[in-house]
Design a protein that fits this description.
- The protein contains 9 helices and 2 strands; from the N terminus they run ααααβααβααα.
- It is mostly helical and 130 residues long.
- Strands 1-2 form a two-stranded antiparallel ribbon.
- The N and C termini lie far apart (40 Å).
């Protein structure tokens, strides 16, 4: 275990438990989802996907982060990643698929979704049915 991780454990055992060690394989979307939840992850990726994002230790209410993912999720993100820069995953397919599923539940037809997103009707049905 690295000295930095040992120091983190000494300062904040909860933070260190949430952070994988250097030899662990990290699934960033899964880690972020466990911290902020699925809906906040989708919103985060929609706005910041594919870019680095500095997470302040204390997120002010007028910061863009609470506006994008909500105050609770922003606070949770700051508790785990505060003071660090994270690379937000692009997750283009996942966010597009979530949007397609949401629009379908709102009554948009599969034909309209296929046209809007450039998919075949068959692919839209696969996305909607999971």
């Amino acid at each position: 275990m690295s000295a930095a991780r040992n120091l983190d454990e000494a300062r904040d055992p909860a933070r260190s438990a949430a952070m994988p060690g250097p030899s662990d394989r990290i699934d960033i979307p899964e880690l972020l989802e466990s911290v902020i939840g699925h809906d906040a992850l989708i919103a985060l990726c929609r706005v910041y996907g594919g870019t680095p994002l500095y997470i302040p230790q204390n997120v002010p209410a007028d910061h863009s982060l609470p506006l994008v993912i909500g105050c609770g999720a922003a606070k949770a993100l700051a508790e785990v990643f505060g003071g660090d820069r994270i690379d937000v995953p692009a997750m283009v397919a996942q966010t597009t698929h979530a949007q397609i599923r949401r629009l379908r539940t709102e009554g948009v037809t599969t034909v309209e979704l296929a046209r809007r997103f450039g998919y075949s009707v068959r692919q839209v049905r696969r996305i909607v049915n999971g």
